[in-house]
Amino acid sequence: MSYTHRPVMLSEVLEYLDPSPGDVICDATCGGGGHSLEIARKIGESGVLIGIDLDPQALNAARQNLEGVSCRVILARGNYGDMAVILEEAGYPNPNGILFDFGVSSHQLDTAERGFTYRAEAPLDMRMDPDGPVTAADILNTASEGELERIIREYGEERWASRIAEFIVERRKTAPLQTSGDLVNLIYAAVPRGARRDGPHPARRTFQALRIAVNDELGSVERGILAAIDRVQPGGRIVAISYHSLEDRVVKEAFKRAERPCTCPPSLPVCVCGKKKVLDVLTKKPIGPTDEEVRSNPRSRSAKLRAARKVLGTLGGE
Known about the structure:
DNA polymerase, domain 1
């Protein structure tokens, strides 16, 4: 299956990232290179584009997509949570701008054998890194009932988490869960019919929860955002696109702490903690896609973009 990458909120990304000729820009979630291609055109022959992705299929597609651009291109396979190390190894520890486009890609969803979607029969895999040590099936068949409930409730925000976890543990007494169909059928049995009548597919939240757990997505988001705040040049921009409230909350809180780091009691007339502002948050509320984009690309519907500009601070890596 060919790898396509339709960049979400492209015009908004370019507006807030503001790439200029000669800039060093890190696309920390490169995917097939949709955003990267337009960034490369902005930074020109004197610029440097660093693309990071866990998925080797994505990097191969990005390499083809970026063929012929005039800037220098460095593609690295890795987790954006390890950005500081990747930037050091690339030789550009302090870029002018960093972009994150979190979540699962359309290609990963549409490649049934990757196991991300509940709409096709496939092994319960869900690894963004095909060489990762843990699959969704591993978690489903070995985690305790309490841990399963926590994962499904915390990461999927699923009200029926306790009942789904109970059904999983009962099912695996007789046979392990191996395919997406096994899990979908179990969820249909666990969630009462009345609760399945309205709203999204009853398996959506559980599949989301397992994907987040398999890939440690929230931990990676936090590590990546903190590394970006530390590493980006003063005056440089950070842009992050999230697709569910858990990711967005991590970005929002990290930006907030960097913009208002003072820990002094409100009663003090002046700050004495000495913590200085590091970011200007450019989006007081998250930016969403236009109605036109949602119509043409329904998967953009839940996207939320936040952006910030570095104002000061010692550069990480120095």
